[in-house]
Structure formats: structure tokens, C-alpha cells
């Protein structure tokens, strides 16, 4: 691309030109550009911020007028381009597309008033056929007048986008891989024919390089640590430059391998060259087997001048199975030396040897040796480091031709067939090995091993020491999606490529007397401070009733004497494989390694953990073989676990590639299902990489549908999940927000049953690992709660030591004590069936004041429920917050404000700080309760008319959460100040106000027949619970405005709004009553103007943030604040909904709330009971049956239940949900039109 200003100082006008070669015919490229409104072109323009693009007038088939509105950067106004396209074909065969700007008088109707500035563009597209019209040369020349005054910087930034149509076509029509493949195949055919004639110069080049580098024996090289354990790397230092050598086996026939090495003009190589410091390259072709190449490179070394290489490259057969590709530096007249560029030299020998095929896959060994001379003096350490980088060329070639999955799969299938047909007899020695191995499992079960944390959550592992022994032994178990035969075959194939580890120095089978018996030798590299280890063991497998056992016992052999510098270890192990049905197999793996000699504990633990992870590797290997068509939810979860677990691929990520990208790239290549998915949706890999990277950033917008998805859209959408995780309590809620926001993700969820479980699992693992988002919110709330407790304790001490305030100290101490007592009672309910030590531990957590932090940590680590516990961790956290607000924060704030106003030291920073902390704690807790209930997907799914008022995008959620916090804190402060002033008038005033206000609320509930609370209790318990719950909810709404309680089953929408207005009004009335009651010469606790300013300011702040909340929330939910629906109407509406799943919910509520429709409920049950007994829906369990009255159950069914002793009435614990444990979402919602 080129750009120039047309006139000096005229910054809104410019010329531009772009040129490229496309891998398509001129006609194809022309049609694409001429179709202004083509789907692909529309997608690209929308991604770039195009506001409008359409054809508004057609003159002929080759002549039409179009409109384009381009978005400009702030503060510039968007630009409108109106133009005319005209196309024709020249005599030379070139296709030409001319466009010009329409007159200023032309007007276009966009359907709305767009504020735009008219701009103009004129230019020409030329498409020239080349290479027999298999390619074309495209040229665009354009003149742009952006209209108005546009800064030069903005013009320079926008002009490449104007010219980007050429780059778009280059990308759309590029067939780099296909063209490179065709070139390789063409050259491979020439190499295979072997009809080349070589000159004396060419033969001399080959002979010199072969003798110089091929004659160096392997013993002269020292081993290098290879980043690719399937590539052997060596090198030696001679003079000022090193000579590296690398070798590996390629999964392709020898001619194609040599062709890839010889062709340096391949597009992939050219792109890699310029991406890695290349400045210039030229090729002079002499024949099909020889060329002279020139390259100039820069190296990222300070003061290091660019290096130029000029060399002759030749390939030649040495024999029927050996082919050489050599490179030797030379002098060439057309490439003279130049100042500032140092001439370097390089000699390279690539030796290709034909090997026996593996099955139907040909094999070729390549040995690459190079002797560079970079010129100048280079430190040996730099030479060694550069040598490893150069040898990675061989690794790239290996990966390019790699067919390891196919080779391993073919080998596994052969072994599966052998295992299924195996009937060889077992010797007494083999029987003894099997008996000894099986005893290891029972021996381990008798030990109390410590649980070992594994990288994969799906693997459970333990490690322990046998009594009287210093050697550790371990146990690991997991479940895989494969048959027992497939698992055993995978393990029995010792030499499979996937089983080769980076620390394997040698691995082989010394003996294999039968299909179930083999002698295995493995030599391992250990850290430098420890001698290398080797292991010799005999492996024997045998079928069992439901699977197989594979046992390995240590053994000695004259064929494997002990090596010097290598310590012989022992590695007895047993793998028990058991079929569990549904295509699943349970693995149990026991090892008791003796690494020999003295080994530090950290090394023992490292190797134990590494080897116990063998079951995880088996699980991943089996999962990798499952195709996309076989995937279900379990496959999605297993694959998700693999994607978020660190792998060896991360250690050797490429230049410019992150560790996560390297991990995901390797997984996408090796997992059949993901590979198929990547072929179906090319952008899916980008989506997963951005999701797993989990980098917190503002979420971008994308309205693309699945059919229009691109890598750019995937980049935006994938990166947005992190902000969703940051704004939600659970992973499920985060994914729910993410899918709702992006239409393409919603289509994926509907198209693939596994997509949602996969994303849920990834989000959960990310949620557990990050320090921001949920954890930050939880720990902030926990920190505020703990700080509130500490500040209250400080104020108790301050009041107790201040004459006249001892009563305040006692009152505040009672409030703190009641809060702790309430939490202790929760501990009792939670742990009454747990061991005593657990109960004592939890009580100590409460008494030390760290309970909020501990509960937050448990929720942040995934929630759930401990063994013997009755409540989920997130529900415990919610209840703890409610207790703190009702028993400590709210009454504590009232007391402290009252004490502060009565004291002489009203500027006491400690007292003011304690009040502010209490207000923030209360506001945070109130906001969190409402926020978490609303964003929970379960609530949004079952009560969409009530839950869902919080927006789906992360930025709006953050703003609305902040408004809720501040609004709750300000409401508590203004209420505390006004109530404190009213209390100073006299105790009766406060009592009269509170009693009358509460009486009005209860009268409202009674008159509307809405006193009974939803919890399904009976008798006295129902009365007590309903009164207490209504009382607590009223207090919380009065002082914090908990939005969750606007539900019909709680306070009700209309009374909630009325109550908030009355609460603010009461604050002004209280202030007026206080100052009106003062005597003429009596001085108030503060100047009246200050008091009104304080109450008015706090009230105004609350109104402002409340208004901001209403503006930010989804408009469709404002009606829930004014709903007149009662609790019983809400409950009865659930029964009126279609479907048994909805109707059966009435039994989760107090029977008094659906007494009016009890007859209808009875008819429904009687008519469907027999059908339920046959179909057995999941909810039709003993717990639900126990909630149904006897007279509602058909007589025959009731008789059978009583005869079979199945009938059991619900206990109080069951009614409360304690029998099976409460979940985090209680059915307390209800909104207008819930039916």
C-alpha cells in the first residue's frame, strides 16, 4: 500500500494505491468486488464499524449506485460516501471496475436521520489474469476526499482501511497451503523419477558437504537437551562456531520430505522468514535440483549487524534409499557484498533415509547437520543457544508430517484384537506376579493415605508410607470414556509415541514371551544433582470378571547389568481396569516405587505425583480419540478439564505465542473431536484460546450470527467471558450472561448439547483460579464484615471506658453477642451430624470473627456442601449476612449514631469510622443478596418475570451493583440519624413510630390475606415463623432497601415502593419533631441547618443512586416494584401453569397459601398418580410424596404405601429442606403476571 497527500496542508484529501496477487481467477475476484452487498463483504464492513452499505439504484446489470456510511473516531462526524460502479473488459483481457462520487445533490433515505458529512471517493480496480488465469493481479488506485477538515493523523489511520479491500481479497482467496502442497508433489515426482543430470559444479558441492559434515562421527557430538523429545539434538564446538546435528523420524515418504526441505520459495517459508527477522531474499533457479539463494537477516542482538547468506542448494540421490539435500556458501556476481551488511556463510547437510513403513504410513529418517560461520567473534554460550533454535527446524518438519495419532490408534486396534482373542496359558511365575500385584490394592486400602492434589480435578489420588518402610506408595483413580480392552491396549503399547516422555533416555521391551507377558526396561533422566535412574520390570496382564489387571514387578536380568552413574530402582505397580457400563471404565492405579539410593523427600514427592498422574494421561488419551459425533455432556466436561489443566506443550511455546495458546493449539491438533470442530468452525480455536486465557478487559460487542462468525468475532466474544466471570457469583450465571449477550453463542448452545456443559466447566475452573471477580467481591464483603466486628469491639471498649456511656457499651456488646449466637446456632444446625471436632472447629471460626472470610473462601472455591452439612456454602454465607445486618450492623449503627450525637466529641474519628464501616457492610450485604439471587440462572429460568432486572453486560452490572451498595448505605445512615434524633425527643416517640409503622404493615398483610409466609410449616411453628419473617423483612427493607424482598412472597412490590417513600419521609418528620420540641433557649445536638443538610443530603444521594439503579436496570422489570400480587396469588399461579413440573411446586409452599385451590390440586393428583408411578419422574420421590396429604392420594396407592412402610410424614427438618439440605436459591420470588 502507498499513500500521498494530494495538496500541501490539505489534510482531508489523499491518494492511495494497493496491489497484490490473488489465488483465484480474475473473474472470481471481480465478481466478489462488484457484489457490494455480498455476505462476506457485509460481514467485513460491519466489523469495521460501517453504519450502512447498500445499493439504492440500478441502471443496468453492470452499472449501479451505492451508499456507504463509515464510522469516524470521536469527535469526528461519520462520513457518507455515495458512488457509482461501472465495469467493463479491456482488449487485453483485464477486467476493470471504475467508481466515482455522485453529485452533492444526491440524497439517500436511510430510514432514520443520520448525522453525516458527505465525503467523496473516486478510483479504479483492475484485475489482470496471470498463470493461465489460475491467479490474478489486482490493483486499486483511489482518491479520497473525506470532507470538512480531518487531521492528517486521522487520514493516515483511515486510508489503509480504504485500501484494505485488496488485503481482504488476498486473505479470502489465499490458497497458500494448497499451492505449497502442489509444489511439493510436483518436485517429489521429479525426485522419484531420478532423471536429473548434474554438472561437475553441482556434484562437487554435494561431495564436499557430504565429506565435510557426513563424515563426522556421532561420538564427536555432545547431547543437547531437546525441547522436542522426539528429536535427538547434538552438537560440538569447533573454533569460533558450533556444529549442531539433529535427527528424527518423519511420517512421510522420502521424496516429499526432501521436496519440503529443498523448496525455499514455499509461501509458508517466506512468511516465516519475514516474521523472524528476514529483510531480503532472492532465488536464482538453475534446474529442478539446484538453485542459488540469497538472504539478509537481522538478529536481536545489540550492535549485531545484519548478516547476508549466499549459498548453492542441491539435492541428489546417494543410493536407492538415501537422498541428500546440501547447502554450501558460494560467491555470486549478482549478489556482491554491501557496506553495513556482514557476509556470513553456512554449510548444511540434510540426509534422508528410507525406513520400513509403520502399517501403511511410510517412514523417513532425517539427519540435519550444519556448520555456520556468522562472522565476527560470538560468545560460545550464544552459539550454543542459537544452535538449539536452528535445530528446531527439524522439529517443525517432524510436526508438519506427524501422523502419531493415526499410528498409535492403528497399533492400539491391533492390540485390542489380540486382547479379545487371547487365550494363552499362564505360568506359575506369572500367577505369582498377579497375586502379589493384586495384594497391593488391598494393602493400600488398609492405610490412611493423605490426599494428593492433582492437576486434574477428575483424578483422586492418595499417598502414604507403609508402616516400617521408608518407601512411599500411592493410589489414584479416575473414570475414562473407553472400553477396558481399549485402556489395556493403550497401556500395553509401551513404545507408542504418545507414551514417550521428555525424561526418557531409553525405553524398550527386552523380552515378550507371550501376548500377556513382557520384560520392560526404562532409563530416566533426573535433575542434575541426582544420578539417573533405570528400571527393569516384568509386566503381566490378565482378564477379570469385569475387566483386567495389569501388574508390573521388579526383576533382574543378565541382559541389563547395572550401569555406571545410573542407580537401579524398582517400580512395582498395578492397574485395575473395571467396566462400569455406558461406555465408561474405572481405573485404579497403585504404585510403590523404590528409586534406589538416597533421594530427597521433595524429589520422591515430585516423581510420585508425576507417576500417579498416569491415570489422568490415560483419560486424556482415550478422550482424544472420541469423534465429535460421539460427544455428549460428559465428553464436554472431560475436554474442558483438559483445556484448563497445564500441559508440557506450554513449556515450549513458540515465539509470540502464549502458554495458553500453545496448550490449546496442541489440544486442538491431538483431540479428534476438537479437530473436527475446528474444521467445521475455523474460528472455534480462537474462541477457546481467548476463553481459557481469561484476561480481564472491557467486553466488546458482537451481534454476529453463527453463519457470519469470524476469528475477529471469536476474539471479542471469547475475551468477554472473563468480565462475565468477574461480575457473577457462579460459573453457570457467568456463562448464562455470556450466552445471552452474544447471539452466536446462543446458536451454538442450541446446536450442540455439549457446548453449555463445556463452557460451564471451563468457567468454574477459571472462577476457582482467579483472584478478581467473585473472589474479590466475596473477600471484600468478608473483609467489611470482619472490619465491622472489630470496629464494634473497639467502640465497646471506648464506651465502657467513657463515663456515662457504659449503657451503650453493654447494648452494643449484646448486639454483637446475639450476632455471634445466631451464627453459632447455624453451626449447630449445619454440623449436628458431623464429628465433634468439626463442630468445635466451626464454632471457633465464628468466635474468632473470621467466619465471613472462611465462608467466602469456601464459596469462591466452588461452593457446594461439606459432608454431613445441611446447607450449601453460598446459602450459609447469605444467612450470615442477614444475621449480621439484622442483629449487628443495623441496630449497631442506630446505637452508635445516637451515642455520637449525645457525646461532646462528635468529631471522634473512631466512632465515625465505625458508623461508616457498618453502613458500607450493610449496603454491601444487601446489594449482594439481591444481586446474587437475580443473576442466578435458576431463578431467571423458573421466574423470568421477576428475576432478570440486572443487565447482562459486565460494565452495566458493575455500575448497578455499585448503585445498590451506595443506596443501601445511604438509606441506613439517613435512617440512623433521623431515628437517633427522634430518640432524643423521648423513648415513647420511637416506640410509637416503630409500633405504628409495623402495625400498618401487618394490618396490610392481614387485610390482603397475605400474612402466612411461604415456608411450608404447620400449626404454631407456622405462626411464629411467619410473624418473625415478616418482622425481619420489614426491618431490613426499612433500613437497607433489599430489592430481593419486593417479591410477592415477601413484602410485595407495591408496598415495597410505598415503604421506601415512607422511610424517607419519616426521616424528615423525625428531624422536624426533634427541633420543634426544643425549648426556645435549648441548644440541639447540632445546628438545625446542619441537621437538615445532613438528612437532606443523604436522602438526595439515596434518591439519585436509586434513580440511577432504575435507569440501569432492564425496563421490563420496573413493574415488579409496583405489583399488587400477593403471596397466595403468586403460589396459586404456579399451579395454573402448564406441566407437572410447575404444578408440583405448590407443595414447596405453605398449604395455607393455596388452600383456596386445594380441591383442584387434589383432582390433579388423583388423576395423575398412577401415571407418575409408571413413568417415575425424577421429582416423584419419597420426599415429595411425604408432603402430600393422605386424602389426596388414591386409596389403593395409599394402602400400598402404608403396607410397604413407604409412607412417612414430613418432619420439621424435611419441611424446612434440612432433611436433604437446602440449596442456595429459595422459592421466595414472585412478580406481576408470574403465571
From TrEMBL:
InterPro entries: START-like_dom_sf (IPR023393), START_lipid-bd_dom (IPR002913), START_lipid_transfer (IPR051213), XK-rel (IPR018629). SUPFAM superfamilies: Bet v1-like. The chain crosses the membrane at residues 808-829, 910-931, 981-1004, 1056-1077, 1089-1112. It comes from the Eukaryota. It is found in: Membrane. Pfam families: START, XK-related. The lineage of its organism: Eukaryota, Sar, Stramenopiles, Ochrophyta, Bolidophyceae. Gene3D superfamilies: 3.30.530.20. Residues 1216-1235 are annotated as: Disordered. Belongs to the XK family. Residues 304-403, 515-619 form the START domain. PANTHER family: PHOSPHATIDYLCHOLINE TRANSFER PROTEIN (PTHR19308), START DOMAIN-CONTAINING PROTEIN (PTHR19308:SF51). Keywords: Membrane, Transmembrane, Transmembrane helix. It is a multi-pass membrane protein. This is START domain-containing protein.
Amino acid at each position: 500500500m502507498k499513500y500521498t497527500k494530494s495538496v500541501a496542508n490539505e489534510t482531508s484529501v489523499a491518494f492511495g494505491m494497493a496491489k497484490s496477487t490473488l489465488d483465484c481467477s480474475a473473474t472470481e475476484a471481480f465478481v466478489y468486488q462488484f457484489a457490494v452487498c455480498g455476505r462476506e463483504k457485509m460481514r467485513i464492513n460491519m466489523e469495521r464499524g460501517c453504519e450502512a452499505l447498500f445499493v439504492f439504484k440500478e441502471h443496468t446489470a453492470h452499472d449501479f449506485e451505492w451508499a456507504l456510511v463509515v464510522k469516524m473516531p470521536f469527535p469526528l462526524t461519520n462520513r457518507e460516501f455515495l458512488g457509482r460502479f461501472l465495469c467493463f473488459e479491456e482488449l487485453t483481457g483485464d477486467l476493470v471496475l471504475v467508481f466515482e462520487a455522485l453529485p452533492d445533490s444526491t440524497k439517500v433515505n436511510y430510514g432514520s436521520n443520520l448525522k453525516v458529512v458527505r465525503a467523496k471517493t473516486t478510483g479504479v480496480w483492475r484485475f489482470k489474469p496471470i498463470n493461465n488465469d489460475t491467479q490474478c493481479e489486482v490493483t486499486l488506485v483511489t482518491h479520497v476526499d473525506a470532507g470538512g477538515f480531518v487531521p492528517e493523523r486521522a487520514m493516515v489511520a483511515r486510508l489503509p482501511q480504504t485500501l484494505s479491500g485488496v488485503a481482504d481479497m488476498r486473505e479470502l482467496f489465499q490458497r497458500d497451503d494448497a499451492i505449497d502442497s502442489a509444489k511439493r508433489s510436483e518436485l517429489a515426482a521429479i525426485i522419484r523419477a531420478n532423471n536429473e543430470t548434474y554438472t561437475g559444479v553441482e556434484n562437487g558441492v554435494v561431495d564436499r558437504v557430504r565429506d565435510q559434515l557426513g563424515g563426522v562421527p556421532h561420538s564427536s557430538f555432545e547431547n543437547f537437551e531437546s525441547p522436542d523429545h522426539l528429536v535427538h539434538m547434538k552438537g560440538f564446538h569447533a573454533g569460533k562456531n558450533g556444529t549442531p546435528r539433529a535427527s528424527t523420524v518423519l511420517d512421510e515418504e522420502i521424496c516429499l520430505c526432501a521436496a519440503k526441505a529443498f523448496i525455499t520459495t514455499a509461501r509458508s517459508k517466506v512468511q516465516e522468514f519475514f516474521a523472524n527477522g528476514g529483510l531480503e531474499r532472492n532465488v536464482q533457479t538453475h534446474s529442478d535440483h539446484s538453485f542459488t539463494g540469497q538472504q539478509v537477516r537481522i538478529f536481536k542482538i545489540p550492535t549485531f549487524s545484519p548478516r547476508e547468506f549466499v549459498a548453492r542448494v542441491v539435492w541428489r540421490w546417494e543410493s536407492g534409499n538415501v537422498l541428500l539435500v546440501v547447502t554450501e556458501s558460494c560467491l555470486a556476481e549478482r549478489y556482491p557484498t554491501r557496506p553495513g551488511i556482514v557476509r556470513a556463510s553456512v554449510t548444511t547437510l540434510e540426509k534422508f533415509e528410507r525406513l520400513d513403513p509403520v502399517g501403511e504410513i511410510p517412514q523417513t529418517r532425517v539427519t540435519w547437520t550444519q556448520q555456520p560461520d556468522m562472522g565476527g567473534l560470538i560468545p560460545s554460550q550464544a552459539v550454543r543457544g542459537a544452535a538449539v533454535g536452528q535445530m528446531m527446524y527439524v522439529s517443525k518438519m517432524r510436526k508438519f508430517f506427524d501422523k502419531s495419532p493415526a499410528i498409535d490408534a492403528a497399533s492400539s486396534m491391533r492390540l485390542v484384537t489380540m486382547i479379545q482373542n487371547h487365550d494363552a496359558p499362564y505360568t506359575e511365575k506369572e500367577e505369582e506376579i498377579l497375586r502379589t500385584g493384586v495384594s497391593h490394592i488391598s494393602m493400600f486400602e488398609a492405610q490412611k493415605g493423605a490426599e494428593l492434589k492433582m492437576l486434574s480435578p477428575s483424578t483422586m489420588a492418595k499417598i502414604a508410607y507403609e508402616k516400617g518402610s521408608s518407601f512411599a506408595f500411592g493410589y489414584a483413580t479416575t473414570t475414562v470414556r473407553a472400553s477396558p480392552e481399549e485402556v489395556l491396549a493403550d497401556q500395553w503399547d509401551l513404545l507408542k509415541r504418545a507414551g514417550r516422555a521428555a525424561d526418557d533416555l531409553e525405553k524398550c521391551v527386552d523380552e515378550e514371551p507371550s501376548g500377556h507377558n513382557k520384560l520392560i526396561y526404562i532409563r530416566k533422566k533426573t535433575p542434575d544433582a541426582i544420578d539417573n535412574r533405570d528400571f527393569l520390570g516384568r509386566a503381566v496382564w490378565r482378564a477379570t470378571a469385569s475387566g483386567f489387571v495389569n501388574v508390573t514387578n521388579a526383576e533382574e536380568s543378565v541382559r541389563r547389568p547395572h550401569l555406571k552413574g545410573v542407580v537401579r530402582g524398582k517400580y512395582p505397580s498395578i492397574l485395575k481396569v473395571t467396566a462400569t457400563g455406558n461406555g465408561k471404565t474405572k481405573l485404579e492405579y497403585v504404585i510403590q516405587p523404590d528409586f534406589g539410593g538416597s533421594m530427597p523427600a521433595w524429589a520422591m514427592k515430585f516423581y510420585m505425583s508425576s507417576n500417579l498422574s498416569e491415570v489422568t494421561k490415560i483419560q486424556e488419551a482415550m478422550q482424544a480419540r472420541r469423534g465429535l459425533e460421539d460427544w455428549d455432556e460428559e465428553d464436554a466436561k472431560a475436554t474442558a478439564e483438559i483445556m484448563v489443566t497445564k500441559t508440557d506443550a506450554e513449556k515450549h511455546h513458540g515465539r509470540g505465542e502464549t502458554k495458553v495458546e500453545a496448550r490449546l493449539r496442541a489440544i486442538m491438533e491431538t483431540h479428534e473431536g476438537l479437530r473436527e470442530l475446528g474444521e467445521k468452525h475455523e474460528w472455534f480455536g480462537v474462541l477457546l484460546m481467548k476463553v481459557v486465557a481469561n484476561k480481564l478487559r472491557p467486553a466488546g460487542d458482537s451481534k454476529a450470527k453463527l453463519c457470519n462468525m469470524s476469528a475477529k468475532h471469536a476474539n471479542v466474544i471469547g475475551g468477554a467471558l472473563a468480565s462475565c466471570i468477574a461480575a457473577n457469583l457462579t460459573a453457570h450465571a457467568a456463562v448464562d450472561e455470556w450466552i445471552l449477550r452474544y447471539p452466536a453463542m446462543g446458536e451454538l448452545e442450541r446446536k450442540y448439547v455439549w457446548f453449555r456443559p463445556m463452557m460451564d466447566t471451563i468457567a468454574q475452573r477459571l472462577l476457582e483460579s482467579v483472584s478478581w471477580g467473585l473472589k474479590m467481591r466475596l473477600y471484600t464483603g468478608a473483609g467489611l464484615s470482619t472490619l465491622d466486628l472489630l470496629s464494634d469491639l473497639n467502640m465497646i471498649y471506648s464506651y465502657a471506658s467513657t463515663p456515662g456511656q457504659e449503657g451503650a457499651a453493654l447494648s452494643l456488646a449484646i448486639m454483637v453477642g446475639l450476632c455471634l449466637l445466631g451464627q453459632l446456632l447455624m453451626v449447630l444446625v449445619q454440623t449436628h451430624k458431623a464429628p465433634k471436632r468439626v463442630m468445635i472447629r466451626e464454632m471457633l471460626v465464628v468466635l474468632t470473627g473470621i467466619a465471613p472470610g472462611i465462608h467466602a473462601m469456601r464459596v469462591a472455591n466452588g461452593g457446594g456442601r461439606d459432608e454431613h452439612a445441611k446447607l450449601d456454602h453460598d446459602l450459609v454465607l447469605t444467612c450470615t449476612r442477614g444475621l449480621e445486618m439484622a442483629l449487628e450492623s443495623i441496630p449497631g449503627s442506630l446505637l452508635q449514631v445516637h451515642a455520637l450525637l449525645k457525646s461532646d466529641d462528635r468529631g471522634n474519628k473512631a466512632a465515625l469510622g465505625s458508623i461508616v464501616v457498618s453502613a458500607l457492610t450493610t449496603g454491601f450485604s444487601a446489594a449482594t443478596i439481591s444481586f446474587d439471587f437475580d443473576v442466578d440462572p435458576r431463578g431467571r429460568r423458573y421466574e423470568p418475570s421477576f428475576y432478570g432486572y440486572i443487565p447482562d453486560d459486565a460494565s452495566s452490572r458493575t455500575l448497578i451493583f455499585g448503585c445498590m451498595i451506595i443506596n443501601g448505605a445511604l438509606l441506613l445512615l439517613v435512617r440512623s440519624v433521623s431515628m437517633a434524633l427522634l430518640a432524643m425527643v423521648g423513648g415513647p416517640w420511637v416506640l410509637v413510630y416503630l409500633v405504628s409503622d409495623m402495625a400498618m404493615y401487618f394490618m396490610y398483610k392481614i387485610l390482603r390475606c397475605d400474612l402466612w409466609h411461604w415456608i411450608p410449616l404447620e400449626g404454631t411453628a407456622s405462626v411464629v415463623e411467619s410473624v418473625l419473617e415478616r418482622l425481619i423483612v420489614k426491618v431490613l427493607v426499612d433500613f437497607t432497601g433489599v430489592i430481593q424482598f419486593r417479591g410477592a412472597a415477601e413484602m410485595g412490590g407495591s408496598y415495597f415502593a410505598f415503604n421506601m417513600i415512607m422511610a424517607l419521609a419519616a426521616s424528615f418528620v423525625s428531624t422536624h419533631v426533634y427541633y420543634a420540641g426544643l425549648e426556645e433557649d435549648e441548644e440541639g445536638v447540632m445546628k438545625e441547618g446542619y441537621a437538615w443538610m445532613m438528612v437532606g443530603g443523604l436522602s438526595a444521594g439515596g434518591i439519585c443512586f436509586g434513580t440511577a439503579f432504575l435507569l440501569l436496570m432492564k425496563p421490563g422489570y420496573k413493574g415488579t416494584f409496583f405489583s399488587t400480587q400477593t403471596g397466595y396469588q403468586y403460589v396459586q399461579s404456579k399451579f395454573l401453569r402448564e406441566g407437572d413440573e410447575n404444578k408440583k411446586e405448590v407443595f414447596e409452599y405453605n398449604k395455607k397459601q393455596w388452600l383456596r385451590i386445594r380441591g383442584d390440586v387434589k383432582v390433579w393428583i388423583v388423576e395423575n398418580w398412577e401415571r407418575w408411578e409408571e413413568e417415575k419422574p425424577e421429582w416423584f420421590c419419597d420426599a415429595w410424596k411425604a408432603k402430600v396429604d393422605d386424602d389426596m392420594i388414591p386409596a389403593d396407592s395409599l394402602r400400598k404405601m402404608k403396607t410397604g412402610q413407604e409412607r412417612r410424614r414430613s418432619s420439621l427438618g424435611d419441611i424446612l429442606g434440612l432433611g436433604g439440605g437446602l440449596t442456595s436459591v429459595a422459592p421466595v420470588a414472585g412478580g406481576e403476571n408470574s403465571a
